[in-house]
């Protein structure tokens, strides 16, 4: 149709097989959902979450009396706190994989 002169293009639109042309397009759900928003900004979410967790691990201190059963939010020892922050990487990878699959469309799946 794009090869035709401008005046004839509209007349030939009725000849297009629309079901076949649009079969590989993304659906409304794939484009307009919170999963789609996360897939688009996942790096920003990851950097902010990792920064927050690393800051929390850096400024948290061990409980004053380790024998009284107090446990810090993400661990008693600094090594444990930073290792907990490292667990965000595979968790984020899982979320991003699911979000990418949900917004990929039927052709890619």
Determine Rg (CA atoms, Å). Answer: 25 Å
What is the count of β-strands? Answer: 0
- Strand content range: under 5%
Biggest sheet descriptor: none
**CA-based shape:** rod-shaped
Secondary structure class reads mainly alpha
Beginning-to-end CA distance, first to last residue: 30 Å
Low-confidence stretches: none
Please give the share of residues in helix: 55-70%
The helix count comes to 6
Average of pLDDT = 79
Order of helices and strands: HHHHHH
Q: If you had to describe this structure to a student in words, what would you say it looks like?
A:
The chain is mainly alpha-helical and 109 residues long. 58% of the residues lie in helices and 0% in strands. It has helices at 6-9, 18-21, 28-31, 34-59, 78-86, 88-103. The chain is rod-shaped. It starts with 5 loop residues before the first helix and ends in a 6-residue tail after the last helix.
